[in-house]
Amino acid sequence: MKTSSKLIALLFVMSLVTYVSAQNLDNSSSSVTKEASLKSDTVEAVEATGISLSWCGTGPYGQVDGSVYGGTAPYRWYQGGTLLMTTYSSSVTLNFGCNGGVLTVKDANNNEDADIVPQGCVDHGCN
């Protein structure tokens, strides 16, 4: 009788340990799933964020005032494929020249926007 009572008690303890372990595993899995879901939402939010370029000019010496909205600094400013400047400021004055061309800005996440600056050192207004 004593042996059977000890065996039943041992089986009960083992069942209890198994149950508690399974609960902890389930809770751990649930928190990992929630964390993965939050990271996924963050990545989607970053991907959905873009940048918007605006510019004014061209000044009498070929300068262009550029502004970028959104994105993450640093910003890289290009004329065609040539890097003109890297800044942490969202507003810059660039030595663009009077020949015109494509003005492109890229942020730290490689989001980009581009626009064509017309040829000529005359005031083209703001775009």
Automatic annotation (TrEMBL):
UniProt keyword list: Signal
Signal peptide: 1-22
Domain of life: Bacteria
Protein name per its UniProtKB record: Ig-like domain-containing protein
Protein species of origin: Flagellimonas olearia
Lineage: Bacteria, Pseudomonadati, Bacteroidota, Flavobacteriia, Flavobacteriales
